[in-house]
């Protein structure tokens, strides 16, 4: 990954460049990195603050030999790779909130956005977008975001080298991807569970079908989360926003 690399200054979103490249036939491992995104995208149609030179804004092309319904597993794999590499380089206490937010003391420092193109069940490609708020200062964020977002620099009180972080992430990613291709999702799910901060505490989850309150217990092999409701029943949620602990 990253052997073929496109480094840009200002772009709309690295997702757009990587998607175009994938549609033009670029192979798995193609990586786009930008200094700034004018229209950085987050999950659920949200934006992503991506000021010049302050973070890692990158997208990679994947062509995994798995059906489309395995895409959520790759999101979780990416979260594990990010969490492990961030912990290693920064020594900060980084944890994962389901499905793929990386948090330090409850505040978000990194996000992952997977966009896939498929024909029927066949996956054509995935564009995996990774945003890491590395050296942003407090005044780089809109004020209302500061409660929920943080950068590595704010959390550690010192700046970090982006190249070192990217290299550490790609190394972790490649090792885990190899493991996934050889042994499937189970070993990745176990790693994910060991890094999760969102298990074992009662939360409110907002799903497309309505709200569910309960205690997230474990990952389902599909990448969904299993939540124990107050009446003792277990529900499996594929898509939901997880609130703060109740
Ligand atoms: C989220 O947590 O909502 C996902 C954020 C993903 C942000 C990254 S930055 C690089 C790539 N390009 C984008 O426009 N988004 C992703």
Automatic annotation (TrEMBL):
Give the catalysed reaction(s), semicolon-separated.
biotin + L-lysyl-[protein] + ATP = N(6)-biotinyl-L-lysyl-[protein] + AMP + diphosphate + H(+)
Please give the coiled-coil regions recorded for this protein.
none
Parts of the chain that traverse the membrane: none
Family named by the database record: Belongs to the biotin--protein ligase family.
Q: Which residues bind biotin?
A: 37, 41-43, 108
What Enzyme Commission number(s) does the record list for this chain?
A: 6.3.4.15
What protein is this chain from?
A: Bifunctional ligase/repressor BirA
Q: Name one GO molecular function term.
A: DNA binding
Which is one Gene Ontology cellular component term of this protein? cytoplasm
User: Keywords, A to Z?
Assistant: ATP-binding, Biotin, DNA-binding, Ligase, Nucleotide-binding, Repressor, Transcription, Transcription regulation
Question: Does the record's keyword annotation contain Metal-binding?
Answer: no
Q: Which GO terms describe its biological process?
A: protein lipoylation; regulation of DNA-templated transcription
